[in-house]
Each structure stands twice: as structure tokens, then as C-alpha cells.
Amino acid sequence: MINKNLTNPKIWIPSVAVFFLGINSISGQSVKAKKDTLKEKELEEVVVVAYGKAKRTSYTGSVATISSDKINNRPVTNITKALEGQVPGVQTTSASGQPGSTATIRIRGIGSISASSDPLYVVDGIPFDGNLNSISPNDIESVSVLKDATASALYGSRGANGIIIITTKSGKKGEARINFNISQGFSGRAVKDYEQVNTDQYFQLYWEAMRNGYRSSQVNDQQAAQMATDNLVSGTGLGINPYGIKYPKPVGTDGKLLPGATALWNDDWRDVLQRVASRNQVDLDISGGSEKSNYFFSLGYLDDKGIAIESGFKKYSTRLKINSEVKKWLNVGVNLSYTNSIQQAPTSSDSNTSNIIQAARSVPSFYPYYERNADGSYVLDAAGNRIYDFGKYRPTNALQNQNLAATLPLDKNENKEDNFSGKGFLDFTFLPELKFRSSFSVDLVNYNGHYYSNPLIGQGTEIGGSVTKSNSRTLSYTTSNILTFDKKFGKHHLNVLAGQEFYKYDYQTISGTRSQFSLPYYYEPDAAALLGSFSGNSDKVSLLSYLGKVEYDFNNTYFISASGRADGSSRFFKDNRWGKFWSVGGSWKISNEEFIKNLNFFNQLTLRASYGGQGNDKLLQPNKLPLYYAYQELYKFYNNLGEPGAVLEKARTNELKWETNLNLNVGLEFAILNNRIKGNVEYFQRKSQDLLFNMPVAPSIGISDFPANIGTIKNTGFEFSLFTTPIRNDDFQWNIDLNLSTLSNKITKLPKGSILTGTKLLQVGGSVYDFYIPEWVGVDPGNGKPLWKTISTDANGNTVEGTTSEYAKATRTLQGSALPKVTGGLSTSIVYRNFDFSGLLTFKIGGKILDTDYTSIMHNGSAGGRAWSAEMLNRWTPENRNTDVPALSTITNNWTSSSSRFLYSGTYARLKNVSLGYTLPSDYFEKLGLKKFRIYIQAENLLTFYKHKGMDPEQALDGTTYYRYPAMRTITFGLQATL
């Protein structure tokens, strides 16, 4: 029998539950539970929510919290990259591994098509407009994610896509404390690049492509073979012979390398353009407090080199936070932070030939870094130094006249930023239950971009070098005045909030380009003679808001809430300027009911539900830049033979109005087995209507598109989180947490049947990222040509399916969505005496990725000199007819055009973080005045489990690769000390 103090005798507890309870024996004996492993106060956890705090168990909204121990000391430059896999319903995508880059975050799906779907970031209670790189992870106390209407409606239009609240550390009452953290890390690629053919294989394959290209009715097979042998190196061939003068024609007419032919060098460009990078970080903070005040001061330094040469991110940061009770009725606080950052960022995210990531992949290893003699030895200059090989002999597809290893150290690709954020507040206490807070926040970002192409070597020599300098200044401020009333009346509790807020955004930018440097090693525009361009603009946005909230609970069991907010946005015409947003919510703490208490099973059981509406005014242009004046008539200005002129760019759309998000949330939170198992299950439905959309129009009208309110999107899904403590005693503690979420994204209304945007099709019933591309059928076993599906209608109206080898005749069809079906994370932490270990595994299930990076090295031979994937070894030949790689030829067959052939599953798992630490026993360091001394080793992006080798599965949300900087695997060693 189970002890009645532990559970109701009518309820059977399986043996696995006994394990979680820590029971000593169950063999026909009464058992005694150990002391509760989780304190009751953990269930009464206070979470940061909109304009205040709340107890988790009584809160009617959906909020998830990430504690500082899951963020601090992670080897990430940007806080957004520490959120993946931590919270259900939050999809985090780190499309670029460039140090200093920001991850893309979506909360509960994609809320818009043309408008922004980014969440609102709130730092210490006030919306934040600065660069997230300016917030040091070591300064963060906690992160709260607000996901439903009740949680975020008080922020109105600014919280339409969810809210991420970052709370920075404050000093605590007691003796001053000094924390010091230093770490040294090393980084490399998290995923190996695509496997390529070697030099011998390449020459034989390209000989085959040339022979097949020469074949015609006038040229027989023998003649074509001879022509391929004769021209493989010279003429229209590869332009180089790595086999030396002994083998002037290294491949015979049989397509095989001549006996004894051996490549004299093998220069993998990935080795010279990429590296093992270093990462150095130092953080120091001093904090303390008394009965009436507290302070926190921090200094930070980070030098994060990138794996691509001449890339990296360096940052200096400081923060000062002071809170003080000046009078019994007055509290004041200030929070000041400043960050100076320098990012070295060579092109690494598009198809430009200067993209260092793509260049490292594109040039085969038989093209050398340095000029070579015919015998393979290096060509030396008069001083005996090696001479960089710029490949003037290389075909265009092999990046002719380019050597980034030589030019990048002489060029500049530099972004400098100064971020200042200042916050202050005054808290007035009129009565114990009546308080007023007035706060002010300012964010100032000053950006300078400096891009320089040297005039000595490389492509810059054609124009005598060039320089582009740009500067932008972003100033935004928010003022808010909030009055709160909080009172208990016996079993009744009432909380009322009312307030006003004003937001102002001011952006200015200027940029210019000059060329023709008369002297080398001068980087500034003044040293260049020819003015190329000069541009500049400014933007201003204002938002005035009024807000209110009422919360009531009875007997700490029944809770209801209602909130409302009105936003007036300068983005809309005066007749549509104001948007009204609201929410209602309720929760029932069922575990407080006697019939649940009598079960002696649930430590916590709460049912909650909410519904509400929010707005979105953040329309983007097709190039994803903000559109601040969507309703106004906008013009472009041109110079026409010295005379100024204006051309219409945007038509007036006074009828444009707010995009609206309607959010439903139903959740159940529970805790059982003496709080050893806690969990939360939620269902959400998020409906976005009156979508802000850039409607394309016929070019004959004179404009490309116009903003309009069209269509409806619905996101639905389930979220599940589980927190368990299988073991906890004086020496050992083991926690296992799991979270996952599902997502279904559907377009439910459009103004017309469908809208085609690139490789995506928007139509009712589909998602915002549905691939609409030809379906790959395979390779014709008879002739080796590629085949795509065709769908047509015969004279009788019947659908007829066929195939074609002409890509232009292929029929586009829906090929799945880029959005994953399930995302989540599995984490564990173990503490054994002085040792601590933690690990985080993130995963995504479902979704598709169109790998256009891969196609660049999958050409059929028409891109001579471009590197080739090892998959080309399985190309079609008369002896290898059953394959999905077409026959080779120097005549293009368009087989690498977008189709389902290069559409891969997005399912993957990644061991995101692993950490192992040891805290020295106090006997070793207390004589030195230290309170704690810990050494640790940790790894970020340690392992990736993914089927399509060579591609990093963390790609853009739309599921299309774009030659991006790969994720980095970072191994870090460090120590922490507390005085």
C-alpha cells in the first residue's frame, strides 16, 4: 500500500512515479517520501509581464521565462541566438554565422506577409529600439516571452507579433559583490561544406562534358573525343595544367588520365579563405545594495573572430543601474548602457562574386592561390616572395581575375556602431494601494559603414579603387505615465492600471561613393578623385497611446482580466490613424478546490484562457526596408540631362488601415509528484486579417506595387513544456526539460485566386511559404537528359501528365511549405557535488529547404572551371542509366533551375550547447577573499544531425538558401570568480 499522506489510496501510482518521488522501498511496506524536492515558492514564481510583474500560477496570459543560468556565459554575441529551443512557440532561425548577426525570431507563426513579423523587445519595462548586440548576455537576469493577447495587448500595435522582455540584473541587499568571467574560445564550421570531386576526377569529368558538347551531326564520337583531349587545358578548356609539362594533354581520348599523371598541387580555397577563429570575452560586474538602494555596474569586452578571413566582431560595453528609495513615497531609478562595436563583414550573404563563403566553395583546388611554374614550383618576385594568382586565365565561372585571399586584407568591410540606451523612472506611492510611475527611455544608435576596394590588386584596379562611406543616426524615445491601484478586500483582490505612452522615432542617413585613388593605402573619400554617388534621407514616426487594464481574483482561485489600448500611428491617414486593441482572459486555479485537494495528487493545476486583438502598422517595402509613409503619394527624383525630374513611386492610399491580429489561447498548467514534474499544455489560434500587403500591379501603370489591406492568415498549434527533477538530494540533482510546439499556417482569404512571388505561391488554403516550382521526374535513361513533369488539359478537358526535358515547358506545382511542423528543445542539467553539467538539443521536424547554394556546384559542365559536387560522379552515362544526375555537356540543360530536385527536408537536430564546470571547494580560495571560483568548458553548435550533407539546416524562414555565412562551432574554456 502507498502511504495515505502521499496520495489517495484509490489512486494507483506506477513504479516510474515512485522513482520520481524518491521512495526507498515499495515491497509490501509503507513508504516515506523524502523532503519536497522543489520548494513551494517555485510554483509561486514571479514573472515579468507587460508593465509589471505577476505570479505565474495566477496569471491569465501565456508567458514563458528563461532564467539567467540558461543565458549567461553562452558563447553567443547576440541574445537572440541564445533563445533557440528554450521556449515553445518561439521559432528561432540563425541564418547567418557572421559574428554580430541577429537571429530571426517568430512567435506563434508568421503573422503577416508584407508587414513585419518581428516581436517587440522590451528592456527593463520599456520598448527597446537599439541594436540587440549592445545587450551583453552576462547583464541579463531573465527573459520573458509574452505570446497571447492578455500578455501583450497592453503594448497594442507594438506587441502584435509577441513580446520578448529582457530584464537586466540589479544589485541585491548586502555586501558588495564582484563577479569576474573570462573565456577563450575557438571556432570552426558547424557543418562541413559540400564534398567536391578531386582534381583527377574533375579533369576526366570535364573532358566528358566537352566531348558530349562537341558531338553533333558533323562531328562523330572519335572526333569529339580528340577535340576534348586537345582543348581540355587550352582553348575553351580549363586554362591550366596542374599535371606539368610532361603531360600537356593529361586526359587521353578514352577519357582517362594518362598513366603516371599526378597533380602537382592541391590548393583547397576553403583552407585559405576560412580558418580556425578565436573568441575572447571578459566580463566584470560590481553590485550591492542597502535597505533603500541598490546598484549594478558592469564592463564587458568581446573579440569574436569569424571563420571567414577578415571577418569578426569586437565590442566594448558598460552598464550602470541604480535604484533608490529617496523618500518613503518616492523611488527613483536610472539604467544607462553604452556599447561600441566594430564588425568586420566581408560580403557573405548573396550571389555576388565577392561573397567570401561562395568564393571558397566555387574555385576548384587545381587553381592555385599563388602563381605556379610548369613544374609546380612557386613563381617568386624579385624579393623572393610568392605572387598571388588572380587567375586571368581562369574561365569566368571560376572567378576570373579574383583572389580574395590577396585583396581582402587590403580592403575594408567595416561597420562601426555606438549604442546608447538610457532609462529613468520615478515611482510615487500616494497610498499603499495607489502608485504612479513616470518613465522615460531613449535609444541612440550611430552607425558608420566604411567599404573600400583597394587600387593595387584585384577587381578594384579597373576603376582605380573605390570607397563608400555611410552614416546613419537613429534616435527614439518613449515616455510613459502609469497609475496602478492594487487592493485586497478579504477574499477579493483588485488590480487596476491606466496610463499614457508616447513614442517618437527619428532616423537620418547619408552615403557617398568615390573612386580613382591616386595613392594606395588611403581609405578615405578625400583621397579619391571621382564622385560616383551621393544620397541621403530622413524618416520620422510617432505613436501616441492610451492604455488600461483591470484584474480581479476571488480567493486566489478565480481570476479574470481585461485590457484595452488605443494607438494613434503617423503611418496612416488621419481618418484611419487610430487603432483600438483589447483582450479578455481568465484562469481557474483548480488545485485550490477541495475536490482536487482531496486527491492528494496535484500540487498545481490551473486552467487559463484568453482572447483579444492587436494591430500591426509596420508595413515593409518589397526589399524589406520599412515603409513609413504608406498612405502618401511618394516620388523618386532623377537627373535628366541636367534637369531635375520626379517619377511616381507610390500612389496615395488614404484608405490604408491597421492590420489586425486576433489571438485565442487555452492552456492547462500542472505540477504533480511533489512538484517533481511540472508541465504546461496550450492551444493557440492566431488570426491576422486586413493584411498589409504590397499588391503588385502591371508595369504599364508606372509603379511596381501599392500598399493595401488584403487577405487573412491563420496560425494554429499546440505548445507543450515539461520540467522534471528525477533526482535531487544533498549531493546530486538532475533536471530534464522538454518543450515542443506545432504550427499550421494557412492563408484563408486573398483578393484574388493566387499571387506568385518568386518560388512561392500565395493562395487560399496554403501557407505563406509554399514552394511553387516544377516537379523533378528524374533523368531519361535513354539519353541522360533531365526530366520535369508537365500537366496539361486535352480537348476533352481531361488532365494529362507528361514529361519534358525543356525547363521552360515544365509545369509549376505546389511542393510543400518551408515552415516546420514541429519545433522544440530538450535540455538537461546535472549537479554532482562541485561538478555541473548541462546540455541543450534543439530540433525541427518538417518543412522544406530549397538549396540554391548546392546548385552552384551541380552544373552539367556548362559552367566550366566552377567546382563540382562529388554527386556528379553518379552522372548519367551509357553504362550508368539509372541515376538522377543528367549527362554532362558544355551545353546547358538548365537542370539546376529551381525544382523539387533541390528541395530537401528541413528536419534536423542540433546539439546546441554543452557545458561542463567545476567549482573549487571553498577551502582552496576563501583565504584569498573569494566566494566562488569555477572553471568550465562549453561548446556551441557541437553536433548537427542532418541528412543532406554540406548544407547548414538553419536557413532563412522562407526556406531558400542564399550563400550565407555558415553557423560556427565554438569550443570555449573559461573561469568565473566571485569576490
Automatic annotation (TrEMBL):
SUPFAM superfamilies with a match to the protein in the record: Porins
Lineage top rank: taxon: Bacteria
Keyword Hydrolase set for record: no
Membrane topology type: Multi-pass membrane protein
GO terms under cellular component: cell outer membrane
InterPro entries recorded: Beta-barrel_TonB_sf, Plug_dom, Plug_dom_sf, TonB-dep_OMP_SusC/RagA, TonB-dep_OMP_SusC/RagA_CS, TonB-dep_rcpt-like
Occurrences of domain TonB-dependent receptor plug (ranges): 58-163
Signal peptide: none
Pfam families, A to Z: Plug (PF07715)
Subcellular localization: Cell outer membrane
Major localization listed first in the record, in broad terms: membrane
Keywords: Cell outer membrane, Membrane, Transmembrane, Transmembrane beta strand, Transport
NCBIfam families: OMP_RagA_SusC, SusC_RagA_signa
Family: Belongs to the TonB-dependent receptor family.
Protein name: SusC/RagA family protein
Organism the protein comes from: Chryseobacterium flavum
